[in-house]
Amino acid sequence: MIKTSLKNISKITNGLFVHKICTTIEKIEIDSRKITSKCLFVAIIGKKLNGHNFFQEAINKGCVALLVQYKLPIIFPQIIVKNTTTALGQIAHWNRIQTNPLVIAITGSLGKTSVKEMTASIFSQYNKTLYTKHNFNNFIGVPLTLLRLKKSHRFAIIEIGGNSPGEISYLSKIVQPYIVLINNIYPVHLEGFHSLLGIAKAKQEIFSGLSQKGIVIINADSNNLKLWKKSIRNIKCYFFSIKKNNIFATHIKIYPNHSSFIAHTPFFKKILINLPIPGYHNVYNALASIAIATAAHVPVNKIIKGLSIINTPSKRLEFIQLNKYITIIDDSYNSSNNSILSAIQVLERMDGYKILILGDIKELGRNTISYHLNVRNMICHAKINKIYSVGYYSKLITDNLIQGKHFNHPFIMLPYLQKKIHHIKKNTFILFKSSRNHQLDTVINLLLKR
């Protein structure tokens, strides 16, 4: 972040500065274990932990001041604010304005992280680029990402998520992007939004922070174009699609471990794109990143190279060789009907014996049963040898399927799977598909340790 004074921090946050000292800070930290010199400790009150309980550790580690919601009973520099989470966002917004990069904000139901990684790979070929790390896409993670900005950064690629109405609007105003992307709309986080229309309205909140003369990029194959077009009538917009549009793809070829297509854009006409990852859905993700790069006038050679060397985000169709016969495909980061369909399509293209392991789909609310039954219908027609379900609702997927078997818990399945793997002596692919909190990633780790 930009070096600034504690006095300025109190002004930015409209805070009360007590036990004043005249000094500057060069870093902000919310984790007392990571405190270094010239650091301001922000005491966040979360669902599980209260940062105010760790002020002494922060002081011992060398922080110069505390940003708190109530005065602590110590003689030490403190800036007291109404809400430390809000104050964190205010400081992050200030840092974003001071550094002034070209900011890109990415949202959508599926593929946000993949698009972010692809876009970051492209822009990093062109100039110094900061981008969201891990899943820092919420009201804590986005400000922390913006606080990493320095004047040397030319671009910032920020992933924005939301579980309820208003979150994306709040974050968009902090980020103040020049280019925004809505990648797609699918039934994810239905508990917070109740319907696909609710999700679509929430995603369009990303327009609320769009800077003047900003650019909007939208998936033209979405069912919500009419809704969004009303909000962007006077805004420059690019649409991407697998059908003819501003940015579109032809000659799509999907292989077991990579894919290729020809991208058509308003400026570059035809570009041969080679992706080191499989999946039809990744063609869409690549088109989104190409649209962003096109809007930012990134040279075509940077686009081609950036997409050719992208790294697969962890636990998103990550290929892991277990032994000479078995390949694990780890897609255990998140789950929805559409991402399950994408995973099935990838698995079907593998040349060998195919096993699919599914966990419950989370946050579907009142649609939970119907969506699990929809997955069952998809699987009935899939060319997959064995299907194991794990959890509670996932039993609906494999119940009475000849090739199916259900387990109530991942660790009940583990010994069964270990025994089966021990006897496999032919080319086999095992795809794990679930939400993060279903512990299938732990099962994978235990299999790899054997």
Automatic annotation (TrEMBL):
Domain Mur ligase central: 106-293
Residue runs in coiled coils: none
EC main group: ligase
Catalytic reaction annotation: D-alanyl-D-alanine + UDP-N-acetyl-alpha-D-muramoyl-L-alanyl-gamma-D-glutamyl-meso-2,6-diaminopimelate + ATP = UDP-N-acetyl-alpha-D-muramoyl-L-alanyl-gamma-D-glutamyl-meso-2,6-diaminopimeloyl-D-alanyl-D-alanine + ADP + phosphate + H(+)
EC number: 6.3.2.10
GO cellular component assignments: cytoplasm
InterPro entries: Mur-like_cat_sf, Mur_ligase_C, Mur_ligase_C_dom_sf, Mur_ligase_cen, Mur_ligase_N, MurCDEF_CellWall_CoF430Synth, MurE/MurF_N, UDP-N-AcMur_synth
GO biological process terms on file: cell division; cell wall organization; peptidoglycan biosynthetic process; regulation of cell shape
Top-level lineage group: Bacteria
GO molecular function: ATP binding; UDP-N-acetylmuramoyl-tripeptide-D-alanyl-D-alanine ligase activity; UDP-N-acetylmuramoylalanyl-D-glutamyl-2,6-diaminopimelate-D-alanyl-D-alanine ligase activity
Main location: cytoplasm
Residue ranges occupied by any Mur ligase N-terminal catalytic domain in the UniProt entry: 25-71
Binding of ATP, residues: G108, S109, L110, G111, K112, T113, S114
Pathway it works in: Cell wall biogenesis; peptidoglycan biosynthesis
Family in the record: Belongs to the MurCDEF family. MurF subfamily.
UniProt xrefs under NCBIfam families: murF (TIGR01143)
PANTHER family for the chain: UDP-N-ACETYLMURAMOYL-TRIPEPTIDE--D-ALANYL-D-ALANINE LIGASE
UniProt protein name: UDP-N-acetylmuramoyl-tripeptide--D-alanyl-D-alanine ligase
Organism, scientific name: Buchnera aphidicola
UniProt gene name: murF
